[in-house]
Design a protein that fits this description.
Blueprint (H helix, E strand, L loop, with lengths): L3 E4 L6 H15 L6 H5 L15 E6 L2 E10 L10 E8 L4 H11 L1
Antiparallel strand pairs: 1-2, 2-3, 3-4
Length: 106
């Protein structure tokens, strides 16, 4: 399965990214955080367009299957070490292959 990794831009479908966040949160965190919290989630709580300049997306056949947001380290003691991965989300895909390629681009 071929994929491409690109930076987000004005043509990025941010609604599709919101949908990916929603699907991964409501599936991945079952039994890890209270179900009541997961049940109140909706796509409108995420605003990926605010990180347009520091987000990479992975696409397979034009569909977004992965998202990686990055930027300066959040903790003061790690600032100056370069970019830090803030979070990654993936739908059904070879995660190992995607993560390896995301880090090549950071």
């Amino acid at each position: 399965m071929n994929f491409e990794i690109v930076k987000t831009d004005q043509q990025t479908n941010f609604e599709e990214i919101k949908d990916l966040y929603y699907k991964t949160w409501t599936y991945s965190y079952i039994d890890l955080i209270p179900q009541l919290f997961l049940d109140q989630l909706n796509k409108d709580i995420w605003h990926p367009e605010k990180r347009i300049d520091n987000t990479l997306i992975a696409r397979v056949s034009g569909k977004i299957v992965g998202v990686c947001s990055y930027g300066p380290a959040r903790r003061i003691k790690y600032q100056g070490f370069g970019k830090s991965t803030h979070f990654m989300f993936f739908l059904n895909f070879s995660i190992k292959k995607l993560v390896k390629n995301f880090f090549k681009l950071l």
